[in-house]
Amino acid sequence: MLNFLPAPLLGALAFTLLLLNILCWVPLLFVLAAVKLVLPFRAVRLALDPVILSIAEGWISCNSGWMRLTQRTVWDVQGIDGLEPHSWYMVSSNHQSWVDIFALQHLLNRRIPLLKFFLKQQLIWVPIMGLAWWALEFPFMRRHSEAFLKKHPEMRGKDQETTRKACAKFSLIPTSVMNFLEGTRFTTAKHAQQQSPYQYLLKPKAGGLALALQAMGDKFQSILDVTIYYPEGVPTFWGFLCGKVHRVVVRVHAIPVPPRLVGGDYGQDPKFRADFSAWVAELWRAKDSQLAALHQADVAPSAADTSSTSVHG
Known about the structure:
about 15% strand, two-stranded parallel sheet, Glycerol-3-phosphate (1)-acyltransferase, 7-stranded mixed sheet, alpha/beta, about 325 residues
């Protein structure tokens, strides 16, 4: 454990280890992704995809390694036992920080298949990582504003088509489809601008989840509803690297996929869209209540929950 080092030095060390880990694993991804690009056949995909996923899992495991070396984080976790690494999952979580992604990968790596994130189109230009996400076939979404779509109606439905194509690939081998329902990180400014009815969450955007369930709902073993809470306040990524995140609370709830929500047309069927949105709103109300309870537990500490799993690392 190197967390005795001064915070700036620790942050620099953690960032260096993060960068070296990227430079170690990403070239391997590029080589295999290039082979798939040159030989776009189903047999090639079925042979190479498990290898690519194993490389990504090794990359994440090494991230967990430098995190354990440089951080003194207590992980207060419930609900990750008994998950199946060779099945399909739809994973949904609240979103507050880039640290969320490291937390999810650290806790779920090899417990479930590799998380595949839906990313904003602009992120493809992030040096090295953009190409890595492309090699891992993370879908890139344009997410045009309603004002833009009114001027360019031909672009309406492009993201839906991207989602359908991605899900067609995901259905070939076990995959965990990750969806941040809020569509962006929570901030108090965004919360106020939206006039969100939730205390700790932005309004959910149900379309991506609906499309994934429409395309491959029969594949998913369950929906993993994840709630992430930072007792010391939402961390910055630099603060995380500097070892300032001392405790992370994560609650995972496996929800059976409601049969009525599978196969419906969210875009064209108003009744289905209303039913699906109502289901998501109820899910979000429960999550908001859970976050409120976690906040309250910190204000008035109670006896530790013996059913939780605390992991130092």
